[in-house]
Amino acid sequence: MDLQAIFNLHADQFMKMGLPASLQVKALEKIIDSCYDCSSSLTIGLIRSSSDDEEEESNKELIQYEISASQDLEPEQDVYLIDNWFTFPLRRFGKMLIKDLLLLDRVEQLIGISPLGGGEEVSEKNGHCEKHEMKPVDERIEQVYDHMWKFVGSYSMQTNTNTVDTSVETKEEAMEPVWYFMDHYGTHIGRSIDSDETNVRIAPLIFIPTMASYSLMWITKPIGEGEALIQQHTYALKSESSLLRSVQMLPWTGMPEFEEEPPLHEPNWSEVAFHRSENLPIIDKQELPLHFYPEDKVITVYTENQHVKSTLNSKHFRLIEPLSETGDSSNGDSATSTGEKPSAIDIKADVLFLLEHFKDFNRLREMNKFVNQFPGEHVMVCKDLLAATLRKISGDYFEQPDDKPVYPPWFQKTYNLYYELPRFVHDWEKRVENPDGPDMNLWILKPWNMSRGIGTYVTNNLDQIIRMCESDLPLIAQKYIERPLLFFREDLDCFVKFDMRILLAVQSVKPLLAFAYNQLWIRMGNIEYQLKNFFEYERHFSVMSYVLGVSFAHSMKYEVFRKKMETFYPNLNWDQVITDSHLAIRQILEASVNQGLYQLPNSRALYAIDLMVKYTDDNELQPVILESNFAPDIGTFIKPQYYPNFYNEVFELLFLNKWSEDKFTQI
Question: Which has more pLDDT, 149 or 548?
Answer without folding.
Answer: 149
